[in-house]
From TrEMBL:
Residues 242-321 form the GHMP kinase C-terminal domain. The keyword Lipid metabolism does not apply. The keyword Transferase applies. This is GHMP kinase. Residues 79-168 form the GHMP kinase N-terminal domain. Belongs to the GHMP kinase family. GO terms for biological process: GDP-L-fucose salvage. Pfam families: GHMP_kinases_C, GHMP_kinases_N. It comes from Roseomonas acroporae. Keywords: ATP-binding, Kinase, Nucleotide-binding, Transferase. GO terms for molecular function: ATP binding; fucokinase activity.
Length: 342
């Protein structure tokens, strides 16, 4: 039996960082994000006597006897192993589950698009189809969060898993006790098309700073650093303001919120911005961009820009001359899904 699954990456439009503990636990968080037509892919092939792992984008692979016991964590596709081990333990009664697990990500790790979480969601969605598990979007997102943050102790927030599972434009609310409410937004098609006309994303380089930035953010809240806490309060308010602007089709208002949000995000922790990011923003602004921010924790990854459609060729040309990969934005309303291959 062959099962295939995919899940979309997301752009964080406002509120990113307020979905991270301990801020979320004490004050509650709010995030507005949207999924784009770029995906993490998974193929499961049943049969044999081993668990075979293959990553098409990294070239890494590994194989282990299918015993039902946890596979070793040795730095080779450990996140994929963690998903398989959790599924075997929780949904397969610890019995061996021989599979070939093939993955392919259209965005690199550390991109700021939630790539690791999106891959985990796609993996769980594939197992849901293979084993006919009774898992809905909330269940899949919650399980993905537990595997990443608890089983693997990876730093990060909560928005990525829910964005990948649900898809579309979502206003998400986070409160203590792991309570998450996903509010899908009904955006007018003309607004979505105009957003696509005005937006660009630019890959600045893989971020290797995200874990440290998130830990700095956590430490600042625990230590009561008021500048950081006030910045997060502002980001949460930005998410509400972004939602209102988006629902009303006010793209100039969205750009203003984006500008304000980037200023607040810079104040959360050291390393969110750096000289390379500031240089790229200056280049884009000089070429016609009028708003922008980093997607994700910061330090690198993708930047997004608002710009006039007629200015896009110049902005693209100048950013590519600095070695960046620039792409158009195409939104998708579809979340994670899986199907059997006949």
């Amino acid at each position: 039996m062959i099962v295939r699954a995919r899940a979309p990456f997301r752009l964080g439009l406002a509120g990113g960082g307020t979905d991270v503990s301990p801020y979320m636990d004490e004050y509650g968080g709010a995030v507005l994000n949207a999924t784009i037509a770029s995906h993490a892919w998974v193929t499961l092939r049943s049969g044999g006597s081993e668990v075979v792992l293959e990553s098409a984008d990294t070239g890494l692979s590994a194989r282990y006897p299918a015993t039902g016991s946890p596979m070793p964590r040795d730095g080779v596709l450990d996140l994929v192993k963690a998903v398989h081990d959790r599924i075997v333990r929780e949904f397969h009664h610890g019995r061996p589950l021989p599979l070939t697990i093939q993955t392919y990500s259209e965005a690199p790790p550390g991109s700021g698009l939630g790539s690791s979480s999106t891959l985990v969601v796609a993996l769980i969605q594939a197992y849901e189809e293979l084993l006919k598990l009774p898992l809905g979007e909330y269940d899949i997102a919650r399980l993905a969060f537990q595997i990443e943050r608890e089983d693997m102790a990876l730093a990060g927030g909560r928005q990525d898993q829910y964005a990948a599972a649900f898809g579309g434009f979502n206003f998400m609310e986070f409160t203590a006790g792991e309570r998450v409410i996903v509010n899908p937004l009904r955006i007018k098609p003309d607004t979505v098309r105009e957003l696509e006309a005005r937006m660009l994303v630019c890959f600045t380089g893989v971020s290797r700073e995200s874990a440290r930035i998130i830990e700095d953010q956590r430490s600042n809240v625990l230590a009561g650093v008021q500048k950081s806490i006030d910045a997060m309060h502002n980001l949460k308010a930005n998410a509400v303001a972004m939602k209102e602007a988006l629902l009303h089709g006010d793209l100039d208002g969205m750009a203003e919120v984006l500008r304000e949000g980037w200023q607040s995000k810079r104040a959360m922790a050291a390393g969110i911005s750096n000289s390379h990011i500031e240089e790229l923003w200056d280049i884009a602004a000089e070429s016609g961009a009028y708003a922008g921010k980093v997607s994700g924790a910061g330090g690198g990854g993708f930047m997004m820009f608002f710009c006039p459609l007629e200015k896009k060729p110049t902005i693209i040309s100048r950013l590519e001359a600095r070695g960046c990969r620039v792409a158009a934005v195409v939104f998708t309303a579809e979340g994670a899904n899986a199907w059997s291959v006949r």
